[in-house]
Amino acid sequence: MIITSLLDTDLYKFSMMQVVLHHFPAAQVEYRYKCRNPGINVGIYIDEIRAEIKALCKLRFTDAELAYLRGLRFIKSDFVDFLGLFHMPEKCITVTHSSVPGEIDITVKGPWLHTILFEIPVLAIVNEVYFRNECREPDWQEGRKRLQSKMHLVTDDPAMTAFRVAEYGTRRRFSKKWHEEVVTTMKAQMGPNFAGTSNVLLAMRHGVTPLGTMGHEYLQACQALGPRLRDSQVFALEVWAKEYRGDLGIALSDVYGMDAFLRDFDMYFCKLFDGARHDSGDPFVWGERLLAHYQANRADPRTKTLVFSDSLTIPRAIELAQRFAGRCKVSFGIGTNLTNDLGHEPLQIVMKMVRCNDQPVAKVSDAPEKTMCDDPAYLAYLRQVFQLPPV
């Protein structure tokens, strides 16, 4: 089986899940899968995908895995106790053929607390099933050559001693085997330049730092869970701060676009949170705007961390590091370009929350192609509420 451990997912799923347990245990949600690549025939492998998901739903956390989670400073004991009873409910996920030839529909629907962990392993399953059938003899040497060239851009440059890059590629990895090789190689050869991985299982197995805070679904759900839509971003950040008391202090900035984020990210949040994460739009413009915003709100940008994670490559990360050197702290999370760069076109697949408590929710990012919502009227209303330009 592709997924053999419930830890084979990204850390931010656990950090968000803990918030759900403590603050929104009754929330009901719906997620939908989408492939952005045209003409990809995944449908012929639907039976394999279903079999892998069936096996996923039989997994339980082991005592060793629970002990590892309990050792993370921000994970609370009652959450680990809950995970000791947890499994993924097979009744909450359906995989069917799409009306579009060759495509599939995946829907996850049920209690947020019990469905939040589906996204990452399901996407990893779709990727690996597809690539193990389409690329039966992968060119591993080509992948290693590409990985080495990326690492040498950092390790061969004495000016890169402060450069930190993390691996964020679980959901779009070519395979579990290649993912592990990427992490072990980076750990062995990059030394302190390797900040860690978002994958909790690999972090535990190889003694590296697990990384992650919040994802888009958290702020999306708060559109339905907060007191009113206009205050949903503020509500999400306040609940997060209440749960973690200053820990995990990287705010996600692109659920409503940068303009709306800066309107809500006032002096209180500027000083309370350690920094923010970029995930859509021009990263240089985003960084300059955020630093100016910190200065305007009397927060020293040099004490803040800017995390870049949108379709990054090592060369682009180096450019960003050079632009913001000495002006703030920077960190980089690279996903697909590390874990699915063997010479084949990666799948651009996502699974996004589309409803919470039977209300539509949406992400409206600075990259229009990343907008996902199944209710056009709600999307138009959301744009109006947050003063976003019409499409």
TrEMBL record:
<keyword id="KW-0328">Glycosyltransferase</keyword>
<dbReference type="Pfam" id="PF17767">
    <property type="entry name" value="NAPRTase_N"/>
</dbReference>
<keyword id="KW-0808">Transferase</keyword>
<protein>
    <recommendedName>
        <fullName>Nicotinate phosphoribosyltransferase</fullName>
        <ecNumber>6.3.4.21</ecNumber>
    </recommendedName>
</protein>
<dbReference type="GO" id="GO:0016757">
    <property type="term" value="F:glycosyltransferase activity"/>
</dbReference>
<keyword id="KW-0662">Pyridine nucleotide biosynthesis</keyword>
<dbReference type="InterPro" id="IPR006406">
    <property type="entry name" value="Nic_PRibTrfase"/>
</dbReference>
<dbReference type="GO" id="GO:0034355">
    <property type="term" value="P:NAD+ biosynthetic process via the salvage pathway"/>
</dbReference>
<dbReference type="InterPro" id="IPR036068">
    <property type="entry name" value="Nicotinate_pribotase-like_C"/>
</dbReference>
<comment type="similarity">
    <text>Belongs to the NAPRTase family.</text>
</comment>
<keyword id="KW-0597">Phosphoprotein</keyword>
<comment type="pathway">
    <text>Cofactor biosynthesis; NAD(+) biosynthesis; nicotinate D-ribonucleotide from nicotinate: step 1/1.</text>
</comment>
<feature type="modified residue" description="Phosphohistidine; by autocatalysis">
    <location>
        <position position="216"/>
    </location>
</feature>
<dbReference type="GO" id="GO:0004516">
    <property type="term" value="F:nicotinate phosphoribosyltransferase activity"/>
</dbReference>
<feature type="domain" description="Nicotinate/nicotinamide phosphoribosyltransferase">
    <location>
        <begin position="163"/>
        <end position="389"/>
    </location>
</feature>
<comment type="function">
    <text>Catalyzes the synthesis of beta-nicotinate D-ribonucleotide from nicotinate and 5-phospho-D-ribose 1-phosphate at the expense of ATP.</text>
</comment>
<dbReference type="Pfam" id="PF04095">
    <property type="entry name" value="NAPRTase"/>
</dbReference>
<dbReference type="InterPro" id="IPR007229">
    <property type="entry name" value="Nic_PRibTrfase-Fam"/>
</dbReference>
<feature type="domain" description="Nicotinate phosphoribosyltransferase N-terminal">
    <location>
        <begin position="7"/>
        <end position="127"/>
    </location>
</feature>
<dbReference type="InterPro" id="IPR041525">
    <property type="entry name" value="N/Namide_PRibTrfase"/>
</dbReference>
<keyword id="KW-0436">Ligase</keyword>
<dbReference type="InterPro" id="IPR040727">
    <property type="entry name" value="NAPRTase_N"/>
</dbReference>
<dbReference type="GO" id="GO:0005829">
    <property type="term" value="C:cytosol"/>
</dbReference>
